[in-house]
Amino acid sequence: MKLFGIPILSLVTWLPLLGAIILIFVPKTQKEVIRLFANVWALLCFLVSLPLVFNFDKSLRGLQFIEDYEWIPLIGARYQIGIDGLSLSMVILTTLLGVIAIFSSWSAINERLKEYYIFLLMLQTGMLGTFVAVDMFLFYVFWEVMLVPMYFLIGIWGSERRLYSAIKFFLYTLVGSVLVLLAIIKLYFMFPDTVASAPGAYQVAVETIAQGNQPMLAMLANAADTAISPNGTFNIWAMQAMGSARGINGFSLIPIGLQLWLFAGFAIGFAIKVPMFPFHTWLPDAHTDAPTAGSVILAAILLKMGTYGFLRFNLPILGDACQDQRVLNIVIPLAIIGIIYGALCAMAQKDMKRLVAYSSVSHLGFAMLGMFAFNPNGINGSIMQQINHGISTGALFLLVGVLYERRHTRLISEYGGIAQKMPKYAAVFMIFTLSSIGLPMLNGFIGEFLLLRGVFEANPKWAGFGVVGIVLGAGYMLWLFQRVFFGEIENEKNQTLTDLNWREWLYFAPLLFLVFAIGIYPKPILDYIQQPTNTIVKQVKPFYFDPAKRVHWGQSPTVQQTPSPTPQVTPNPTASPTPSPSSSKEKPSSVNEATQ
Amino acid sequence: MLLQVLPSWKETLFLMPELQLTVFACFVLVLDILLPRGKKTLTAYASLLGIAFTALGLVQVYYATKATLPTLIFYQMYMIDHFSFIFKAIVLIAAAMSIAISIKYLETEKELHGDYYSLLLFATVGMMFMASSYNLLMFYVSLELMAISVYVLVGYLKYNDRSNEAALKYFLLGAFSSGIFLYGISLIYAVTGQTNLLEIAIKISLVILAADSNIGFGAHYLLALAITLIGAGLLFKVAAVPFHMWAPDAYEGAPTPVTAFMSVGVKAASYAMLARIFLVAFPALRTIKELPGWLPMLIIVAGLTMTIGNIAAMTQKNTKRMLAYSSISQAGYILLGVIASNEIGYTGLIFYILAYTLMNLGAFAVIILLRRDDIKGDRLEHLNGLVKKSPMLAVMMLVFLISLAGIPPTSGFVGKYLLFAGLIKADNEWLNGLAVLAVLNTVISFYYYAQIIKAMFIEPPSDDKPVNLNINATVTLTIATILTIFIGVYPQPFIEVSKLATKSLAPLKINQEQPPNPNPSPTPKPNDPGIDPRNDPRLFQNLSPNE
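^ inputs. structure came back:
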């Protein structure tokens, strides 16, 4: 699909960068022009991304809006972009929060305006590129490019300890991403031989990913064809097919030992970004010191890149490693510690922004826990939780920013009783607080309910810990609300506070709408993410939907009866209606080790 | 009789670029005397003209020999192949850019003399010969031509104590390392009786083979000593740990354009030499039975070089010294390409040197522009608030720094990718470990590059002296910036060229696995079979197990 003669996905991705380039040529004394241009341009970027939603075929498996051009054939890298439901939800979240972030800076930023908007727009392209990239090399380029503008946003326009926080953010993320790079290189080199060793299994895995999606099937066939791509491929989905292809015994084609190493490379990189418990220390600093728009983007989008990375790379490619008991023994406790530790830390904070930042650690811990339940509810819930976290936490940062703009302090002790002076603000704050806690009818509830249901299915104990986190979450959020808004005004400076102005209403309105819309009727969004979720579950647990093994709610078992029409040489458990008992998927790793 | 001994005219024509540059170097010396005081700047433009002519000559030679590459001329002393063309192009770029950024600098330092440019051109001639040498003696002579010119250049600021100290230090250590290198050559000659790289490779495989079959005479001990000595001499030139001690002092004391030239030109040529010697002459010594070959040696050196260079750079407050340590650590990354010993690693080696030349020269050029009348410009605080004084300069420096740190979309990233990919491709646990160390080092390196970025973009200006861009520096910097980004975004043609050049390094791996076939291959190459070393019957006439 094309818009203005340009393929739409490329347009959506590169439009912000184009705006940044145009801004370079605007003289920096023209502050009003720069401000107006940046806002209009960001709105344009959002509007351009809307046709993606309306033209998206929810029933189709795999990628849509595929673009595929040659880029660096000698190392096998291609300019391949495309989106599935998961990417789409992230892309829309990015463009929406992008325009809100830029809009919220209208009066907050007054110095070095031109550079500020240039960096914000560049950042937007980096983030969108990360979500739409189908080629790992391209993915990595976007992933890294994004760091530089974010470094400047924190470093130049941040608050007190901005230099420390900026470099900490950069170095932490860089450590993770270089490890991801090594894992990508390793996958790249093993791809041709691995696929050549079991072409039939690869074909079946491709069918799981993209059945009925002709352009994508062609793309994946080309990726595996050494005549067409002699220098290998970086295609993420081809790697997923390689990783989820099951060989003769129903085991992955990648030996478990190597899988664990690759898993470590990817997981450390993404866990730093999420951030999971021991790697989270950059987050409170970066969030606290970033300008409001920076915090919003960090919370709403940058953190999602970590979870997105897990859903794109770790789960589908390294399914056996994910289910390996050694990995679960590390990941699950870390996720649970993240939930509870993040909540406890949030409770102890004196700074509002820091409190919200620690609540992110807790919420993202939920997202990780749901993901590692490996069932549709858990993963759907995890994705919903990510979207909701983007909306609610993004809004909470905006709300703190509103207060900061008026009083230039974020210390909770400086406030108290301001509901009297800012009733509308207090109401909006209450709604987002409740949404963050997970009150039914608001968006947070949907994510947490689905997620906990999935986690309960996987292991009730984990769900128990999760519930503790929710209780603690209600504790710190409501306590914050009470300390800031209720009681008498004790600080004289708070007497002059003014309520929300129309510009602030303007950017809270869409978020408020989404909070209620998702909370009351989440089906439209769940429809978009249903196919990606099912694909991931099938890749991780091939028998999950198999009626012989398990009957699941609302899932038609016929979906599974789909080996490719061509006869397969390799017997494949996904294809065979009655899998042999030896290929039971209960403890794949240990059996696989024994066979090595 | 005499005519048979002398090289043919055709062979001499292939030397045209080097000859041209030598003539221009002499011409610049003469011109310097003829010109009146105050007009000496013309010598710089004459040198640039010389480089332009040389580049033209290089292109002509390329088209003349395109069909017959690789060609060995002058009794197999001088190799013409893609590898040599690329490195000659790189050193010419480095020389031209160094000259362009020197003009203003020498005026400020009041040391405006033509012999500076003449020495620079002579050093360039030496580097071009280094890129083409195929004989250990030839290597030594070209190395000395380059080294002696650079010794003088380092001490060019006569009234500056640091410069004098740097020159003396560099000279003493450099002369010492040249001696060590020469000793290594003599040991190789003692064992093999050869100085030609390919013949050495063949002889060595025989010696090693002989040692395996109990007819040997323990020559592999001598060979291990020889490669250690040769390695020490070469690693000194590229400033790899533990032979790096001279580098920070020499780089800091030398006139900044010379520092820039040393950190790219000298390094590129030395790497060409290192790659050629280790990969062409000593592929069989990669690992030696019972003894460490050059592979473990280089793994340790590369690991130490990256780590120590980066850690030492973190504490520097002097930008010249910081960039000196940074270029030490960069030398470690480039070594990874030699260690990987596969095509992608070699491609990375050549590609990264090309990228490194542009980005490092660019970074030094920015430092040079900060040298104003009474400001030395080499302290970190001199960069403060650069974005307010000259946004263009600050953005260019940013591009160079993120490229040096290996962050996309810059040439440095693609180069590092290729180098790391080479290590992973080799699929050896030690090399995988080295790859992890290398990527973690890129993180460390960003820490000190970020200090420069922070000073430029975040700190307020510490002085109110404006930074003036002159036309030469602007052109140089613009070209370097655009190329750094362009190569990063669309590296395909540059990878292609680098890949072509790896053919000069690749066939020698075949020698390692299969001893050379005494019978010349039945299908002769299009060029003169006497020139192709593998078809030369003289090579094989005396080879027998008893030798």
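Residues 325-504 of chain B form one domain. Strands of chain B lie at 71-73, 78-80.
thumbs up if we can close this ticket
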